[in-house]
């Protein structure tokens, strides 16, 4: 990471004419983000204070709701009696920065930073339109205010001596307009946003919250409590997550949050702390929470009827009539010869079984299940025989190897052998595709560490000249950051000390990104997550929430758009990169709770996070690059992508399936198909093989911790059809 200060929006530079969404300016962006995603997505330095959250130890800019201008001392004068007016906001202007000095009983004196004088009503008058000036602080009643909450996070400043409120007189929008007191009408020109001023020198993140515990658990709600973090300046907010998805945010004065739950699920809860400068702590330890169902349900769904199976080459499509249930059918399990080979949601009534043997008889049945785990009896068997040749998208699926750890990065070498990384164990494994034999490669990556979440040994890549210059490129997590290194792979071993190519990429429990891919231009592309600080994704001086582009030696190419390693920005947690036959870069990105994105990455493109999630949020107009495909998070949460021919393949975790989409000449994605749905569980990595097929890895257990060897995963080889 190159900077931990609050982000500064940058202009986009997108060379291609495509449907775009307009990037708001810095202040408009903050407003749009606040409206769309509340406290999660607004940089804390721009988050409004209220009567409940104002900090007497902080400086604030007071922004009028009607005009958008700031409370200022005219001419930045330090003299007694200088008028208080409104002026356009200017970052760092001390005469626009005010501190609330505690006067007791909920009253404060507003003191200007540049002069250390207090705001007061002229002469102590109680009449409307009496002007406001700065004056030496005497703790007088006409120098005291209290905060009254208004709509949209704004406040009114009530003057103690008169009961009137601070008002931009005449509802003017002009610079230099006078500020005075008026009878409280809760008008927009009487409402103020209190924007905390981030300390310029604060680059220290708060400590991680500790001691998570719950109380009042029901099937739909719980209260989560934790021990407060500490910070050199002060904790401004806490963000509560489950399994990488944001749930809610609370002020830094709080140490608990009321959470809304989904019945019958098991979630891993954790909390991050943020300070006013935008520094985000590492996550707390995870607290696993098993949510009870809302009612005792012992009745199974009815047995599916009307089951039919039709073969098309070496694929079989199974269809059935929907079951019923007293609570609701949540899914179906498809059995082939008595073994579950697929699962689909309760809304589906069909399943495609791919990669079967040619000319072979199979027997299928279907059973339904509900939220409580009750399963119907299996349906009547139906029998079908596959054709003599493959006509589907997937012709065969062969299990080549298994592993007790998580295969994450995977690369095929020029000699046909495969290297893959064991994410939590932190070792590289060599796989012989012909025999399925695996062996841990001698040599380690110094400094590699997990995150008690989704960090560790991540992406692997080799360049086109590997045979002549055998570098293995690795992205991995350390105790302080994510980084990209390269290390020699000679005679089947990692040799020598690794060279660090990129470091300072923010890390956290989740949102580390991790994929590497060499482009046809010979450059190395790197997918990085936002480190669970959404504001970083819009800061082009920060390496989080980006696609990076560097030379093989780690140098920055001269044609990068921002003079650093950043190639595109506004990403949440991208984990898939692939180039198509036209040299275009495709990227797969996790959404929070609404949409995953499949993006066509362009130089300098802004992909909208945090104001946009897919096409949800403040996404209209020109300036933001729209995704080429969105997928519902519930049926996607996709990690890896690969291109073979004119098809893009997308491996999905929560959706437990492999999508295939056809890439058109103009960069559209058509004929999107869902394959292997539930057949092999959660799918993490998909990579092209030298023979025109695919490598595919599973990620079914232990992928939300950093515990080595607690998984049961498979490395699969797919032969593709048409």
Describe the structure.
The structure is a single chain. This protein has 722 residues and is mostly beta strands. It has four domains: 59-196, Trefoil (Trefoil (Acidic Fibroblast Growth Factor, subunit A)), CATH 2.80.10.50; 210-290, Immunoglobulins (Immunoglobulin-like); 305-376, Sandwich (Immunoglobulin-like), CATH 2.60.40; 394-720, 6 Propeller (Neuraminidase), CATH 2.120.10. The chain is 2% helix and 43% strand. It contains one helix and 54 strands. The strands form 17 sheets. A four-stranded antiparallel beta sheet has the order 6-5-2-13, with no helix packed on it. It has a four-stranded antiparallel beta sheet with strand order 17-16-19-20, with helices on one face. The radius of gyration is 29 Å and the shape is globular. Residues 1-48 have low confidence and may be disordered.
- As laid out across the biggest beta sheet, the strand order is 6-5-2-13
CATH topology of the largest domain: Neuraminidase
Shape: globular
CATH superfamily of the largest domain: TolB, C-terminal domain
Radius of gyration: 29 Å
Secondary structure elements and their pairing?
Elements: E1 20-22, H1 26-41, E2 59-64, E3 70-73, E4 84-87, E5 98-104, E6 107-112, E7 118-121, E8 132-135, E9 145-149, E10 155-159, E11 165-168, E12 179-182, E13 192-196, E14 210-215, E15 221-227, E16 235-242, E17 245-251, E18 256-260, E19 266-275, E20 287-290, E21 305-312, E22 315-321, E23 329-336, E24 339-345, E25 350-353, E26 361-370, E27 382-385, E28 394-403, E29 407-412, E30 418-422, E31 427-431, E32 438-440, E33 457-461, E34 471-477, E35 482-490, E36 493-505, E37 516-518, E38 524-528, E39 546-550, E40 566-569, E41 574-579, E42 585-589, E43 595-601, E44 612-613, E45 616-617, E46 623-625, E47 629-632, E48 638-644, E49 647-652, E50 657-663, E51 669-675, E52 683-688, E53 694-698, E54 713-720
Antiparallel strand pairs: 1-46, 2-5, 2-13, 3-4, 5-6, 7-8, 9-10, 11-12, 14-15, 15-18, 16-17, 16-19, 19-20, 21-22, 22-25, 23-24, 23-26, 26-27, 28-54, 29-30, 30-31, 31-32, 33-34, 34-35, 35-36, 37-38, 38-39, 39-40, 41-42, 42-43, 43-47, 44-45, 48-49, 49-50, 50-51, 52-53, 53-54
